[in-house]
Write a structure and sequence with these properties.
81 residues, ScdA-like_N_sf
C-alpha cells in the first residue's frame, strides 16, 4: 500500500515502474537528487510543485495493485506478503 509517509526512494526501489507515474506528475529526479529520493512522497511532491498529490498517490496505488496481480500470476501466488 502506498502511503504519503513512504519515501520516493522506497517506492522506486520496490516498484521501479513508479518512475513513469512520477514523470506523469512532473516529479522528476535523478540518482544524485538525494533530497527528493529520501523525502516522503508528500514532501517531494511539494518540492516539485505537484498539483494534485492525492491523485499521484492514487495513481501509484493503482500501479502497485496491477504489478502485484501480475507478480502473483507469474508465481501462482494470490497472497500478498
Amino acid at each position: 500500500m502506498i502511503r504519503k509517509e513512504l519515501t520516493v526512494g522506497e517506492v522506486v526501489q520496490a516498484y521501479p515502474e513508479a518512475i513513469e507515474v512520477f514523470d506523469k506528475h512532473e516529479l522528476t529526479f535523478c540518482a544524485g537528487c538525494y533530497i527528493t529520493l529520501f523525502s516522503e512522497l508528500e514532501k517531494a511532491a511539494g518540492y516539485a510543485a505537484v498539483q494534485d498529490v492525492d491523485r499521484m498517490i492514487s495513481d501509484l496505488q493503482r500501479l502497485v495493485e496491477r504489478l502485484e496481480r501480475v507478480r502473483g500470476a507469474e508465481t501462482g501466488c494470490d497472497e500478498h506478503v
